[in-house]
Amino acid sequence: MQFTDIKEMTYSRCVGELEEIIRMMQSDKCDIDHLAAYTRRGAELLRACRERLTATEEELKSVLESLS
Fold first, then answer.
1. How confident is the model at residue 30 (pLDDT cuts 50, 70, 90)?
2. Helix (H, G, I), strand (E, B) or coil at 30
3. 6: closest CA among 44, 34, 58?
4. Alpha helices in the chain (DSSP H)
């Protein structure tokens, strides 16, 4: 199973892939042989999204504080 390097993906693409993995895992067609890999990938995507949101929040706070 080949996945794109998360560092090369946009936030939107990470969220889209995460949503796709969730839909697939909830379906009857989820391949049990790949479940662990999908779970790991989902966790990586979730971690990356949280890190990007946190970084953006900190940057926005910094910009807003500089306006004061």
1. confident
2. coil
3. 44
4. 11-26, 35-67
Nearest-angstrom CA–CA distance, 64 and 3:
37
Q: By the 8 A CB rule, do 37 and 1 touch?
A: yes
- Quick check: 30 and 63 in contact, CB under 8 A? no
Predicted TM-score (pTM) of the model is 0.86
2: left (phi > 0), else alpha (psi -120 to 50), else beta?
beta
List the one residue out of 9, 34, 5 whose CA is nearest residue 21.
34
CA distance 49 to 29: 26
Locate 18 and state its tokens. Answer: 């995460």
